[in-house]
């Protein structure tokens, strides 16, 4: 998502950086490029107009033009304005003290409502809540079955009320939650392919009947310019509190998603980056803007690592620092990277990583993990803990055993060598830091 927007913006910044001092014409030309990049990414034209006007005005000040690093200042201003466009600060999901809390999801059919309901339930469950899902989409065939299956996978009960009217189902779910001591009810409502009066009225009626604490609208990031009409109508009729953007992992241009906040004034609360229950992330304007500008999302990487790591792995990290890096560690690292969502997702969060990924054609194959795994598994116990003993003969044997080539094994040895060197450096740094502390 946002790949070509990222590329275009970075090209513009590169051109500015190449200039040193900037003239008014340089800024005007850069703003024209930014305008085109945003329009081509499907950002709403009115939003683009305001964005560029504000950014240009801030860039054309003496403070920026006469500074020692004008290009850097322009980048910083674009970043600031992008953060502002996306909503400035994180907008957390606020639950009230009422039990059960009711969260109602609205949106068009296919926007990802049902899966978002499950993802939200999963997230809340991880936070110690006990959610109940209410299947109020009685029109889409199998919607309730889909919810029941997915709910079963994450261990969250689903209230179906088969055959009942959606309003009764929602009310029944709230009663059931009281009975069964569930503290949050997540209501999945029916959507239609397009804005439709009956659907709107039903959402309004359910809202009136169960008085949700939060109404969240699910918006598909792949919707193009039409997104503005859709969210505006929903905002007017259901007065929702926040937005969940789904399918941000896809390769659509995504500009519609960037326009939602400016068009409705409602905050984006979550983004969904995949089909699995764990792919819902709390939305952070700052982190998203930095990702779009290719500046990396370090917080995101740390969070992913913390989720994937267990106490054993943290202990292993300490041991590696102490005793050096073995092939077993390398195997463990590969497995961890896989768990963190694969190379593509990690690279996408590194500064400049998205660009590198785009240069590689947007795809990077995780089969490299499988190859490395096979090679390490073909090593003897002794070879794994002391890779330096792996000579030419052993390399040929490992290649045969793992169905790879000696060149693959050589590459792996080289990687191990690099990592071991880095580990050595970190060890020295850690020792120096400890020595420093003791000396004080
Ligand atoms: P609903 O009609 O609004 O309830 O939509 P669904 O929840 O059934 O989702 C429609 C389709 O989009 C399903 O195939 C989902 O698996 C898929 N989907 C939903 N969210 C995401 C996402 O964040 N990423 C991807 N790749 N697919 C998604």
UniProtKB/TrEMBL annotation:
Q: Which GO terms describe its molecular function?
A: 7S RNA binding; GTP binding; GTPase activity
- Give the matching Gene3D superfamilies: P-loop containing nucleotide triphosphate hydrolases, Signal recognition particle SRP54, nucleotide-binding domain, Signal recognition particle, SRP54 subunit, M-domain
Which cellular components does GO assign to this protein?
Answer: signal recognition particle
Q: What is its EC number?
A: 3.6.5.4
Keywords (A to Z) from UniProt:
Cytoplasm, GTP-binding, Hydrolase, Nucleotide-binding, Ribonucleoprotein, RNA-binding, Signal recognition particle
- Reactions mediated catalytically: GTP + H2O = GDP + phosphate + H(+)
- Is the keyword Cytoplasm in the record? yes
- Protein task: Involved in targeting and insertion of nascent membrane proteins into the cytoplasmic membrane. Binds to the hydrophobic signal sequence of the ribosome-nascent chain (RNC) as it emerges from the ribosomes. The SRP-RNC complex is then targeted to the cytoplasmic membrane where it interacts with the SRP receptor FtsY.
Free-text note on domains in this protein's UniProt record: Composed of three domains: the N-terminal N domain, which is responsible for interactions with the ribosome, the central G domain, which binds GTP, and the C-terminal M domain, which binds the RNA and the signal sequence of the RNC.
Q: What is this protein called?
A: Signal recognition particle protein
Biological source species: Enorma massiliensis
